[in-house]
Design brief:
Blueprint: H1 3-17, E1 38-40, E2 54-58, H2 79-86, E3 90-93, E4 98-101, E5 106-109, E6 115-119, H3 134-146, H4 152-158, E7 159-166, E8 169-174, E9 212-218, E10 222-227, E11 240-244, H5 249-258, E12 263-264, H6 269-278, E13 281-294, H7 305-314, H8 317-324, E14 330-331, H9 354-366, E15 372-378, H10 381-396, E16 400-406, H11 409-418, E17 424-427, E18 431-432, H12 438-444, H13 458-468, H14 473-490, E19 493-504, E20 509-510, E21 513-514, E22 520-521, E23 526-527
Parallel strand pairs: 2-11, 2-12, 15-16, 15-17
Antiparallel strand pairs: 1-13, 3-4, 5-6, 6-8, 7-8, 9-10, 10-11, 13-17, 13-18, 13-19, 14-19, 20-23, 21-22
Helix pairs in contact: 1-11, 7-9, 8-10, 13-14
């Protein structure tokens, strides 16, 4: 699987497979006011950590590969599995709102904002006994970029060079200031693979500096890991860590209650609602959890500005929330809703206007557009509910909408990301407050291979570059507001709402450490 298709699969798993399935349930209940990111729920102090036991974790989609180049390093699609093997150079601490060292000792920005210096601890080794040093970091980083791992285009565009200055020092020289750069080291660029892992390009081996090693792996089905006695942060407490497949969010709740699993990754609104009432866990709201992606390419209706704006004004996010999400989502057309750190009062929310939508559509028809468009979705109940709601609203203003369903997410990826055979679809960008720029840039920049919609606007590219170079939160917020206003002005995508992910665990699980995007660090986990 190519990196682009892997990234696409992640977006569709969050979007189409779950029907957006990012919401707040009791943490938002349609109010648009979810809880802040962090560990929630009551859990008694069980005393000192105890050794032993097996933890089973039901992720959202078990990866088909443990190579960070081939697997989207997100919480929903392999991130937790891979950090258990490779660890992370940096992690995001939701409580402090800062990127903090994990495997690294320090990461410091230069006074001129044009370089970052990473310091590594002495004596750390990969699981094969070879040294985890600066050259290994450089080589792993170069491989990741050369093979087009997720976010590599942004890295290559922003970073002039990566240099091992000495065995414990890596210097990242930038082309321009990049305040959000540490975020890259919490995803694939921070998962350093050992040289032996890719010595044979045709036979990748999952060898890292993380707390566990792979005992057995059945791609897409089950992954069994064993603890490393020589892990740099001390031997893990668990005897075994299993990643298993449990189909359906209710089935995960049932399995947590029965003790068949002890942790899970969840995205569905009403089930998050249920789970937050029963279990402690890590909750993370995300912006652009529900998005209508329009194909902007020539030959498709979305290439016509009037058509895009007619769709924008015809579709009411509240209706989608009511008909497909049991009224438990976070509907709204704002890029960053009021709960977000990046919300700005300088951005106007788009309000449905059926009469104006009809006028715009009639203008496009008068100039030759036949009014037809094809909506592509997945054959799942929530995805179908969204498709039917969108179809009805568009047809109300004069569109003729053909809805076509694909049987699997792989089929949808082929149509959307490879063949570009769609006019409109539902997906998710899942932008956490910790990393507001990265996925937004990947999906909107004109030269990005992950720009599924084919959107190209030099003004947007310039705004993205300017925002990337922001050196303060206020400057970044202002840049994001300009981007949000341009999205409203151009309507390359339709923002239908925010979402969330939730990682619940049973009362006997202790010591799980979250990063961003629902990625969990399990090296210190113990069972009471």
């Amino acid at each position: 699987m190519s990196a682009v298709v892997a990234v696409a699969s992640a977006a569709l798993l969050v979007g189409c497979t779950s029907g957006g399935d990012g919401g707040s349930g009791s943490t938002g209940s349609g109010s648009g006011e979810p809880m802040q990111a962090g560990i929630i729920g009551d859990q008694s102090d069980a005393g000192s950590p105890a050794d032993g036991g097996t933890l089973s974790f039901a992720g959202y989609a078990l990866p088909s590969s443990l190579d960070p180049v081939k697997t989207q390093p997100a919480g929903s699609t392999g991130g937790t599995e891979m950090v258990s093997v490779y660890d992370l150079l940096m992690r995001y601490d939701a409580e402090s709102g800062e990127f903090v060292p994990q495997l690294a000792e320090t990461l410091t920005e230069s006074d001129d904002h044009l370089s970052w210096t990473l310091k590594l601890p002495d004596g750390v080794t990969f699981s094969d006994g070879t040294p985890f040093d600066a050259q290994a970091v450089v080589d792993s980083t170069n491989r990741y970029n050369e093979l087009h791992g997720a976010n590599s285009e942004q890295f290559v565009a922003g970073v002039k060079s990566v240099v091992a200055e000495d065995p414990t020092t890596v210097l990242y020289n930038l082309n321009q200031p990049w305040h959000e750069f540490p975020a890259l080291l919490t995803f694939g660029h921070g998962m350093i693979v050992a040289p032996a892992a890719y010595a044979d390009p045709e036979n990748f081996q999952p060898i890292g500096a993380g707390p566990f090693t792979v005992a057995s792996f059945t791609p897409g089905s089950k992954l069994v890991m064993k603890p490393r006695a020589d892990y740099w942060d001390g031997p893990p407490h668990l005897d075994e860590l299993n990643f298993v497949t449990v189909q359906g969010e209710q089935a995960k709740i049932d399995a947590l209650n029965s003790g068949d699993i002890q942790m899970a990754f969840m995205l569905q609104e009403d089930k998050i609602d249920d789970a937050t009432e029963q279990f402690p866990g890590f909750y993370e709201p995300v912006s652009m959890g529900d998005v209508g992606a329009i194909n902007n390419r020539e030959g498709h209706p979305g290439a016509i500005p009037e058509v895009r704006h007619a769709m924008q004004l015809a579709i009411d996010p509240d209706v989608i929330n009511q008909r497909a999400k049991n009224d438990k989502g976070m509907p709204g057309s704002e890029l960053f809703q009021k709960w977000s750190k990046w919300h700005s009062d300088d951005v106007s929310e788009v309000t449905p206007d059926l009469e104006r939508a009809r006028r715009l559509l009639n203008k496009a028809k008068a100039e030759g557009y036949d009014g037809h468009l094809t909506y592509v979705g997945l054959q799942s109940q929530t995805s179908q509910d969204i498709a039917v709601a969108v179809q009805a609203m568009l047809q109300q203003v004069g569109f003729t909408v053909d809805v076509e369903y694909a049987a699997t997410s792989t089929d949808v990826v082929q149509r959307l990301y490879v063949d570009h055979d769609f006019d409109l679809t539902h997906t998710s960008n899942s932008i956490s407050d910790a990393v507001p720029f990265m996925r937004l840039s990947a999906s909107m920049r004109s030269d990005s291979s992950n720009n599924m919609i084919g959107y190209s606007n030099p003004k947007m590219d310039a705004l993205l570059e300017k925002t990337q170079q922001s050196t303060s939160d206020d400057e970044k917020r202002a840049g994001l507001a300009q981007i949000a206003n341009l999205i409203n002005e151009d309507a390359p995508v339709l923002i239908w709402g925010a979402g969330a992910n939730f990682v619940p665990w049973t009362q006997n699980v202790h010591g799980a450490v979250p990063s961003t995007d629902g990625i969990m660090l399990l090296g210190d986990v113990w069972l009471s």
